[in-house]
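Researcher: We plan to redesign the surface later, but first we want a full-length starting point. Tokens attached.
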């Protein structure tokens, strides 16, 4: 993967052909990065250095090494005496500037609303104050839009203007305040967390050994006070205690000191400031007593204090990691290697261009329908979805067929050559739009694309929660994150892996857990307020004790600093939010905004759309009502059933190639009938379909379209005066009319009316009953003008229902409820209901995988199970209770322990135990949400 120019490469190989020249080269451990010494992923990155291919841990190190080589600075690797992440690079270049390279940025930076967004891994985060320190420091930089740090996942999300600020500057500022940030990648992120965990465990082990030894000598010193121990014996035990405590203080305790120093250097305070002050005061006061022989020593307290703090943080760290891992289970780790067969850039560009044009037309049609209100557009789904889907599918099918024909021809010419080509392996991140890849049976589908093989069977359970296998045909859309459950197939890549649907889910979840609700912000603010007051209070305690009893001044001050540190307070909210967010995800309820959980706990009303929300959005044909024109008697001799079958076949023929729900219902009903061929097919937005069959022109769509009734004409009104669509009598939810054009009069005459019913979701009734038991009112807001919508709402026991609403009408209803003090959850389809979803206090959408990119709601129900709403309400209520319990416990503990500590009744080692147990209680209490 090296990009060294041939001239430089050959010179390099020649210069270092003699291995004796590089005998003094410092080499890393096996499976560690040659550049920085970190563990390498599998497979690793590579760079050509000193005539050999060297393993690299990430693309940043790879490009840094290549830049060094291409600049003629390979001597850097011969001159360095150690390998570590902080080793200085040649003055001509810095490692962080490599991340400004376009190829590097494309791996982890994406655009959003005109700004750049990056997902980063952050090391050395210890408490909520650490996240606040990073956020506040970055907010000072010009060009930063928003910075959100996730303590639980050790990740951050930053939004900034790249024209004002390079990403390298952001990373440099984070490093300057004592934290390490690098682009997020799941495998390297997990390796970083594992490395950090091992370091914590090593420090914990050293602290445990040191505290045990120091305690042994402390026992001897305590007993010596009562048995007239000789001075030289006492001094000997003190020096030995100093010896065993020194590594505990200077190695095991270093995380507290570095964190505190970073905060002080940034003119801020965090949880480690009072802890570090307590440790430093205690250790150096004991050192002074050891050297002068005057006063008491507390090496055992220092060692035990560090041990208990590390033990508490180690348990807390692993609990947070366990909670964070639940979210990672939802996201596929992309295959590292894939089989690339060929590429067809022009075909991919053609498909993407067609999709772009369709999206533009769709947005225009939605705006037109929104302005028109609920007259025509509300009766039937806008027909632009038919035309556009058909256009794209025709294009993809033609491309797939052309590819398959070329493939078969190639196989016939040279099977051996083809076999070699199929074995070509490439890394996942090197895939480009237009590549053609082979997906093996049982493997994950790395990205979105178009199926080129004849058929495929895939499972989208990860995306939708539905375990049913889906059969895909040639030219169909394949979603990234699905699994191939049948034979191998070939597909055309239409999106980069990071832009696939599963990549989008990961972004949405990370955004949700990065955003802080008001409750978390209040907790962080309160914790910082506590730290500042603790420091002031400790000074007052020291002054008071110095006046009363100077010998107790230091130890009472240390006890106050330790016992009242608000670590538990800072953990009260984030750990509970993380566990509950991941628990909701296991129900298929994906929160995409940070405030969702808090607002769900406060809702008083739930407003529902009807089609696709309370119903499945998949209409079934209920009945065909024949309408015999006065001028047509040719079919009078046919039986009623035969007439219906004939007209059904005509209607279904008009809908061939469409993916509209009505079209699907007609084609399903006519699957055993012979469909006549059609010519001159035309699709009309918000109208229907027009085509010619055997010389006769037909239309199918809503009533006014089928009869060609426009504002300026009233064609054939007399002939169709008796045409009445009675949805209530038919117990239907929608209807379309089939008509034909009379060749003599050129007027349109109705032939039949097709009635459809959209089945209510099986779990809708139980869900609404549960909401009613919780005292939450349910309201239906639907654009369907039919009275049947109100009948359905009444049968479901909903408190209120409104039909025939335009998008503006729906927003007005929501705002009216809010004006009366209601907190409203809006449940819609995520696309057509975008305005009302945005207007509600909190919103959720029942969306399929293909809808995710257009979802504007605060949460998504991925599996189509509407009962997830009641689960979300239950979990949000329990989350609120647990957060309040954690708050009460943390505040009560800090308040209760303050007085005994200030009065000198709490020794420093006992204060450390109390603080650690307090934090542990908060974590374990939050973990109860895993069973919610």
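Model: Full-length starting sequence:
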């Amino acid at each position: 993967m090296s990009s060294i120019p041939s001239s430089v490469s050959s010179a390099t190989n020649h210069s270092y052909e003699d291995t004796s020249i590089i005998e003094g080269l410092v080499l890393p451990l096996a499976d560690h990065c040659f550049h920085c010494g970190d563990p390498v992923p599998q497979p690793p990155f590579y760079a050509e250095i000193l005539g050999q291919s060297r393993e690299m841990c990430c693309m940043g190190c790879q490009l840094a090494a290549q830049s060094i080589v291409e600049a003629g600075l390979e001597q850097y690797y011969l001159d360095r005496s150690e390998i570590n992440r902080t080793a200085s690079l040649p003055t001509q270049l810095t490692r962080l500037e490599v991340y400004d390279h376009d190829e590097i940025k494309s791996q982890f930076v994406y655009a959003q609303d005109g700004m750049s967004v990056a997902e980063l891994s952050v090391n050395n985060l210890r408490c909520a104050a650490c996240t606040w320190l990073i956020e506040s420091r970055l907010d000072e930089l010009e060009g930063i839009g928003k910075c959100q740090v996730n303590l639980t996942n050790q990740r951050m999300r930053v939004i900034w203007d790249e024209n004002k600020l390079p990403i390298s500057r952001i990373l440099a500022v984070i490093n300057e305040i004592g934290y390490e940030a690098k682009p997020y990648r799941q495998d390297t992120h997990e390796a970083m967390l594992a490395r950090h965990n091992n370091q914590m465990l090593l420090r914990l082990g050293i602290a445990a050994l040191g505290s045990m030894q120091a305690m042994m000598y402390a026992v001897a010193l305590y007993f010596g006070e009562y048995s007239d121990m000789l001075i030289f014996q006492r001094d000997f035990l003190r020096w030995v205690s100093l010896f065993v405590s020194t590594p505990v203080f200077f190695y095991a305790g270093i995380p507290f000191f570095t964190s505190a120093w970073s905060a002080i250097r940034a003119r801020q305070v965090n949880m480690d400031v009072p802890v570090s002050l307590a440790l430093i005061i205690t250790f150096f006061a004991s050192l002074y007593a050891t050297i002068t022989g005057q006063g008491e020593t507390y090496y055992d307290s220092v060692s035990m204090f560090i041990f208990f703090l590390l033990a508490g943080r180690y348990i807390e760290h692993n609990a947070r990691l366990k909670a964070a891992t639940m979210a990672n289970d939802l996201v596929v780790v992309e295959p590292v290697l894939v089989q690339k067969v060929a590429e067809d850039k022009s075909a991919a560009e053609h498909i993407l261009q067609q999709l772009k044009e369709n999206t533009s037309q769709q947005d225009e049609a939605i705006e037109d329908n929104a302005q028109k209100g609920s007259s025509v557009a509300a009766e039937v789904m806008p027909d632009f979805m038919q035309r556009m889907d058909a256009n794209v599918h025709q294009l993809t099918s033609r491309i797939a067929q052309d590819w398959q024909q070329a493939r078969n021809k190639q196989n016939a010419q040279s099977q051996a050559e083809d076999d070699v080509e199929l074995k070509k392996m490439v890394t996942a991140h090197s895939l480009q739009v237009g590549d053609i890849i082979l997906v093996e049976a049982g493997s994950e589908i790395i990205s979105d694309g178009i199926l080129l093989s004849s058929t495929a069977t895939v499972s989208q359970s990860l995306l939708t929660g539905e375990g049913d296998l889906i059969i895909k045909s040639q030219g169909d859309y394949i979603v990234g994150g699905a699994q191939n459950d049948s034979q191998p197939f070939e597909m055309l890549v239409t999106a980069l892996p990071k832009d696939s649907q599963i990549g989008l889910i990961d972004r949405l979840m990370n955004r949700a857990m990065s955003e802080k609700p008001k409750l978390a912000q209040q907790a962080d603010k309160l914790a910082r307020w506590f730290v500042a007051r603790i420091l002031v209070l400790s000074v007052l305690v020291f002054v008071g004790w110095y006046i009363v009893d100077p010998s107790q001044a230091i130890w009472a001050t240390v006890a106050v600093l330790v016992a009242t540190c608000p670590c538990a307070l800072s953990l009260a909210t984030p750990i509970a939010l993380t566990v509950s967010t991941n628990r909701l995800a296991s129900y298929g309820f994906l929160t995409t905004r940070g405030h969702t959980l808090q607002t769900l706990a406060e809702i008083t009303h739930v407003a529902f759309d009807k089609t696709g929300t309370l119903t499945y959005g998949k209409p079934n044909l209920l009945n065909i009502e024949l309408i015999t024109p006065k001028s047509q008697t040719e079919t009078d001799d046919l039986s009623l059933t035969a007439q219906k079958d004939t007209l059904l076949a005509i209607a279904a023929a008009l809908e061939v190639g469409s993916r509209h729900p009505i079209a699907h219902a007609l084609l399903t009903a006519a699957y055993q009938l012979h469909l006549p061929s059609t010519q001159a097919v035309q699709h009309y937005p918000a109208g229907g379909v027009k085509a010619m069959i055997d010389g006769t022109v037909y239309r199918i769509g809503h009533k006014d379209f089928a009869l060609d009734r426009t504002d300026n004409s009233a064609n054939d009104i007399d002939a169709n005066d008796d045409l009445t669509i009675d949805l209530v009598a038919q117990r239907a939810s929608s209807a379309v009319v089939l008509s034909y054009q009379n060749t003599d009069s050129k007027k349109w005459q109705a032939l039949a009316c097709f009635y459809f019913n959209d089945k209510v979701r099986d779990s809708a009734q139980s869900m609404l009953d549960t909401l009613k038991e919780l005292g939450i009112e349910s309201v239906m807001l639907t654009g369907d003008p039919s009275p049947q919508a109100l009948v359905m709402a009444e049968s479901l026991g909903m408190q209120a229902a409104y039909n025939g609403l335009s998008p503006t009408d729906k927003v007005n209803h929501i705002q009216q409820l809010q004006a009366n003090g209601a907190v409203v959850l809006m449940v819609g389809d995520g696309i057509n209901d975008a305005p009302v979803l945005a207007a509600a206090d909190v919103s959720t959408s029942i969306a399929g995988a293909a809808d995710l990119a257009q979802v504007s709601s605060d949460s998504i129900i991925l599996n189509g199970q509407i009962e997830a709403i009641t689960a979300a309400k239950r979990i949000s209520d329990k989350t609120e209770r647990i957060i309040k319990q954690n708050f009460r416990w943390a505040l009560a503990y800090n308040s209760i322990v303050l007085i005994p500590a200030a009065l000198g009744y709490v020794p420093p080692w006992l204060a450390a135990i109390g603080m650690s147990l307090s934090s542990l209680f908060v974590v374990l209490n939050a973990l109860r949400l895993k069973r919610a």
